[in-house]
Amino acid sequence: MHHRAMSRTKSVVISLSAMSLLAFGWAHAATPTSKLTVDTTKSGAVIDRNIFGQFAEHLGTGIYGGIWVGTDSKIPNTNGIRNDVVTALKAIKVPNVRWPGGCFADEYHWEKGIGKGKRPVTLNSNWGGVIEPNTFGTDEFMEFTRQVGTEAYVSANVGSSTPQETAEWLEYMTSEKETSLAMARRENGHPAPYSVAFLGIGNESWGCGGNMTPEHYTDEYRQFSTYAKNYNPAQTGDKRMKKVASGANVDDYNWTEVFMKNKSGDVDALSLHYYSGFEAWPPYQPASGFDETEYAKVIKTALRMEDLVSKHSAIMDKYDPQKKIALAVDEWGAWYKGEPGTNPGFLYQQNSQRDAILAAVSINIFTRHADRVRMANIAQMINVLQAMILTDGDKMILTPTYHVFKLYVPFQDATVIPVTYEAGTYTRGGITLPRADIIAARGKDGKVYLSITNIDPTQPLEIDASVLGLKAKSATGETLTAPKIDSINTFDNPNVVTTKAFSATARNGSLILKVAPESVTVVSLD
């Protein structure tokens, strides 16, 4: 889409060093130019920090080995939880973590995961049919959220449980009164009630969560919600527990229609699940070692999120024009073929520069719909699907996707600033995509932040920007680039894909940002 740029103020020249240009082989390549206008005199919706939420399911090594190693492990830990993982997650300011699933949530019975003695051993029937030792349960999860400094998004079992079990779980977690369940929590080491910021009432109730019709689920939601009470006296007003209904799978617009039309009681959000990376089930793309056409196909699937969010939001607008109910995209990300030699039920896949681009364009879609999309949870946090972190014994690496989330920290609770720009086009294998994907926002620190994603893996991109309402004198930031579109970080070479610094000062009254192919760049203007 092409937009006419508005009048310009004094601006900034930002460029990579000649060494950096040569390193990526495009110093003398033809460089497309895109005109950009950033209007700081206007503002849009607040970008809720919860769109940067994470998801930790009892799946593969996402929990055991990824978070939990036990107190007797030689891997450095605090109360059984990996120190390196906690440090990495604190650096990206994780706002919330969804747990224990996923499909696992609707076969999870919380009482099997508490207590100081030996806990019942069960089967994880959804993910590999492996043993579930239940050594990581409610108290361990809450300890994890405490260490990371994040909020708990607990998924309640609707598919194979009862409203009573959910009510008693909440009493165990949140009651300050001397009930038997609250006393059990105290005996298990936590005298004060826990804070449960979000409660998911069922997961994928159209599928693994019970194979329900939307009409039946809507009735189930009403019943479960009635008895799902939070007793923590600190959780009132703006801090009250928010309830998330199980929403649609991809483009099941009828599910959204039926639920919104027939809902009653407390509903704070309705979920949406969409995985990109494939056109038809099952996922077949390799996570690494792919070519440029496969790259284009995957990014095209990611951009479909715009259509899905727009159409589900339009249905919600009919019944909730004030947008009181959020659209929570609480499962999103790339789903590829599992890595060779791994258990296919563990969903372990590598993470490339392609995934960095995919993450950035997805987050940008959420920000453009920030008035309705106020929560999102990438799947998943560690060792599963599009992970932030991969671990192997005592080793840990940060993925390209992690680095995107770190770049975007300033956008948490920032206010959208409107931008218009010439997106241009990139074509490969009969697929045409926008070349540029750009957003801007005013951070809580008052600074203006600009994110530029160059989807084109073959050419750099030059942004000729006008910034209305701001006389920028300097700019600083970081860019995430890689030698190839399928570059990955490995345990032997963990820094193939990592960020590099940007800094510049005003020159010649222009703001020119020249960014690398297949790159994500975030700068602040001062």
From TrEMBL:
It comes from the Bacteria. Residues 330-519 form the Alpha-L-arabinofuranosidase C-terminal domain. It catalyses: Hydrolysis of terminal non-reducing alpha-L-arabinofuranoside residues in alpha-L-arabinosides. The keyword DNA-binding does not apply. Pfam families: Alpha-L-AF_C (PF06964), ASD1_dom (PF22848). SMART domains: Alpha-L-AF_C (SM00813). Residues 1-29 form the signal peptide. Keywords: Carbohydrate metabolism, Glycosidase, Hydrolase, Signal. Its EC number is 3.2.1.55. One of its GO terms (biological process) is polysaccharide catabolic process. GO terms for molecular function: alpha-L-arabinofuranosidase activity. InterPro entries: Alpha-L-AF_C, ASD1_cat, GH, Glyco_hydro_b. Homohexamer; trimer of dimers. Belongs to the glycosyl hydrolase 51 family. This is non-reducing end alpha-L-arabinofuranosidase. It comes from Asticcacaulis benevestitus DSM 16100 = ATCC BAA-896.
